[in-house]
Specification:
- This protein folds into four domains: about 1-35; about 40-140, RNA Polymerase Alpha Subunit, Chain A, domain 2; about 140-230, YbbR-like domain (RNA Polymerase Alpha Subunit, Chain A, domain 2), CATH 2.170.120.40; about 230-320, RNA Polymerase Alpha Subunit, Chain A, domain 2 (Beta Complex), CATH 2.170.120.30.
- The protein starts with a helix and ends with a strand.
- The chain has five helices and 24 strands.
- By secondary structure, the chain is α+β, with helices and mostly antiparallel strands.
- The longest helix has about 35 residues, at about 1-35.
- β5 and β6 form a beta hairpin.
- Keywords: Membrane, Transmembrane, Transmembrane helix.
- InterPro entries: c-di-AMP_regulator (IPR053154).
- It comes from Winogradskyella echinorum.
């Protein structure tokens, strides 16, 4: 029985030693890895060149060939990401970093070494770059500006309406694509804006509708729509009639001498409305044959009036 106890104790001590050894070994291995990764190493990587700020019409050709080979030096820690992917991306500004030629952008690699170093970061030292010059081929699509028409179905709450006109951040957009497609398009519309029971200001971003066209891009792709919505009311006012184009040798008498107008206006401007803001005309030149009446027309009204109608649809007259 004592012998069994001694064997168990011995086994126990051996197990403890194995665990301690394993722990120390793991710690030593980690220190070794850290020591190795702290050293400087050299590595060849590929830099994928991407252009920004190109014109909307530009299409980069042979994109898979637009690489710069870089031979770099850095700490092992820093180079770890390149164990699995030996490429990264650098971004060039088409307006400032390259020289445009017909169907070609020329990137002077050596001249812009500083730019590559900035984008890689201070942890990397660039030892060499190839090629000295990178030619980035492109093609140019057809383009033109076309007007945009807003489409919407907007129902206002009772007593509310839009004040003034709808406002847009753009009135035309650039379309880009094959010349045969671009030539067919003379105007575009927005997707329909549908709003119900509106009683507050409108501010929406609406996409341009290009669903009918294939391989066409539009810039911008959407427009901002704005409108002021406020309370409106109806009013009435008496306005005198003016007879126009009457020959000087013709004398007439007409009745009534004034008409009643009804109009729809926002509350803010309601009290400022005057009869002199309107001009109602009866055109003598519109009389046909033995016609004995005029049809009055509103030829001038304040711009902020939404709609106006004349109660009297005809003005009778007789020649004296």
């Amino acid at each position: 029985m004592n012998s069994k106890k001694k064997i168990s104790l011995s086994d126990y001590l051996k197990k403890k030693n194995v665990k301690r050894f394993s722990l120390f070994f793991a710690i030593a291995f980690i220190f070794l890895i850290f020591s190795k990764l702290s050293n400087d190493y050299k590595q060849a990587i590929k830099l994928k060149v991407n252009l920004r700020n190109t014109e909307d019409e530009i299409v980069i050709q042979n994109d898979s060939a637009n690489f710069v080979s870089a031979y770099i030096e850095a700490k092992g820690f820093t180079l770890l990401p390149y164990l699995f992917n030996k490429s990264t991306e650098i971004v060039l500004d088409a307006k400032t970093n390259v020289t445009p030629k017909p169907n070609l952008y020329i990137f002077d690699v050596q001249k812009h070494k500083y730019l590559i170093e900035e984008q890689l970061g201070k942890s990397y030292k660039v030892l060499s770059l190839l090629p000295d010059t990178l030619n980035i081929a492109y093609s140019k699509r057809a383009s033109k500006l076309v007007p945009v028409t807003f489409t919407g179905t907007i129902n206002y709450a009772i007593g509310y309406d839009v004040k003034g006109n709808f406002g847009f951040n753009v009135d035309s957009v650039k379309i880009v694509g094959a010349a045969s497609e671009v030539d067919k398009i003379n105007t575009l519309t927005t997707n329909e804006l549908i709003l119900k029971d509106v009683k507050s200001n409108i501010s929406e971003n609406i996409d341009i509708d290009i669903s009918e066209y294939q391989n066409i891009e539009v810039f911008p792709k959407s427009v901002d729509v704005r409108a002021e919505v406020t309370r409106f009311t109806e009013g009435t006012i008496e306005v005198p009639i003016t007879i126009t184009n009457k020959p000087s040798d013709v004398v007439i008498n007409y009745f009534p001498k004034s008409v009643t107008l009804s109009y729809y206006v926002d509350l803010e401007n309601y009290k400022s409305i005057k009869a002199s803001d309107f001009i109602i005309e009866c055109n003598y030149g519109d009389i046909k044959n033995d016609q004995s009446y005029f049809v009055p027309k509103v030829v001038e009204k304040p711009k902020f009036i939404k709609r106006v109608s004349i109660k009297q649809k005809r003005i009778d007259f007789i020649k004296l």
